[in-house]
């Protein structure tokens, strides 16, 4: 079983719809992240959370919101999806303090907004 | 200038070849450095951290040149299974990791 699980794996939705991408982890890590990946742009940070009571914006948070329901769960919402949010989304966790700790990624959610 | 830049490739090499990738970064205050591997449509996975003195893990060698602000990854005796995209990742300071766009490697029989 995957240590970092994302659901759904694939999602096609229409412009204006609200959708939620979910992430759960069994690694016991405090830190969780949401990234999106677009061709030619690399991975970009949307939001991150260092514990249940901590939520921080990343470099491209506009149009997104998150909820850290528990240490193991971190969900990403698109309040009103638009076509340029079509991308591959990754959730990630890390164990430690500072950024020498590696990231552990989920298997990704491919989102298409039509 | 991008914070982290990589040659997108692809690098086409035969099995058994040695291949090297470089990655340049713009922030001289960057503190830590990593190489990740990503297979097509899969999640990135940590390949190795990059230490100041350089480090080796089997066929893979990573080096850091702070003066010229680049890191490198050397792969010896390339295998077909090494075909992937290699992502350079730099910690640019507090809580921020910056990903390069990746270098694609294709190893052929």
Keywords, separated by commas or semicolons:
heterodimer; A: 114 residues; mainly beta; seven-stranded mixed sheet; four-stranded antiparallel sheet; 0% helix; globular; B: 109 residues; six-stranded mixed sheet; five-stranded antiparallel sheet; 54% strand
Architecture overview:
The complex is a heterodimer of chains A (114) and B (109). Chain A has strands at residues 4-7, 10-13, 19-25, 31-38, 42-51, 54-57, 64-70, 73-78, 87-94, 104-105, 109-113. Chain A is mostly beta strands. In chain A, the strands form 2 sheets. In chain A, strands 2, 4, 5, 6, 9, 10 and 11 form a 7-stranded mixed beta sheet that branches. A 4-stranded antiparallel beta sheet of chain A has the order 1-3-8-7, with no helix packed on it. The mean pLDDT of chain A is 92. With 109 residues, chain B is mainly beta. In chain B, a hairpin with a 2-residue loop joins β6 and β7. Chain B has no helices and 11 strands. In chain B, the strands form 2 sheets. In chain B, strands 2, 4, 5, 9, 10 and 11 form a 6-stranded mixed beta sheet that branches. A 5-stranded antiparallel beta sheet of chain B has the order 1-3-8-7-6, with no helix packed on it. The A-B interface holds A 35, 40-45, 48, 56, 88, 90, 98-100, 102-108, 110 and B 4, 8, 31-32, 34, 41-46, 49, 87, 91, 95-97, 99-102.
Coarse structural class of chain B? mainly beta
Number of strands of chain B: 11
How much is the average pLDDT of chain A?
Answer: 92
**CA radius of gyration of chain B:** 13 Å
Write the layout of secondary structure elements.
The complex is a heterodimer of chains A (114) and B (109).
Chain A (H helix, E strand, L loop, with lengths): L3 E4 L2 E4 L5 E7 L5 E8 L3 E10 L2 E4 L6 E7 L2 E6 L8 E8 L9 E2 L3 E5 L1
Chain B lengths: L3 E3 L4 E4 L4 E7 L6 E7 L6 E6 L4 E3 L2 E6 L4 E6 L8 E8 L5 E3 L3 E6 L1
Parallel strand pairs in B: 2-11
Antiparallel strand pairs in B: 1-3, 3-8, 4-5, 4-9, 6-7, 7-8, 9-10, 9-11
């Amino acid at each position: 079983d995957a240590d970092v699980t994302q659901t759904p794996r694939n999602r096609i939705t229409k412009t204006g719809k609200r959708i939620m991408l979910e992430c759960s982890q069994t690694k016991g890590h405090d830190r969780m992240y949401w990234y999106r990946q677009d061709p030619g742009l690399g991975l970009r940070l949307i939001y991150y959370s260092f514990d249940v009571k901590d939520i921080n914006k990343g470099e491209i948070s506009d149009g997104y919101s998150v909820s850290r329901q528990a240490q193991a769960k971190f969900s990403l919402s698109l309040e009103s999806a638009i076509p340029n949010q079509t991308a591959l989304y990754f959730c990630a966790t890390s164990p430690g303090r500072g950024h020498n700790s590696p990231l552990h990624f989920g298997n990704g959610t491919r989102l298409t907004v039509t | 200038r991008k914070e982290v830049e990589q040659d997108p490739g692809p690098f086409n090499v035969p099995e058994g070849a040695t291949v090297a990738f470089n990655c340049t970064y713009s922030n001289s205050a960057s503190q830590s450095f990593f190489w990740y591997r990503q297979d097509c449509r899969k999640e990135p996975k940590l390949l190795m951290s990059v230490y100041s003195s350089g480090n080796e893990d089997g066929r893979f060698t990573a080096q850091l040149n702070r003066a010229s602000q680049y890191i490198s990854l050397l792969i010896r005796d390339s295998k077909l299974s090494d075909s992937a995209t290699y992502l350079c990742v730099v910690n640019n300071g507090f809580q921020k990791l910056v990903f390069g766009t990746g270098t694609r490697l294709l190893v052929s029989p």
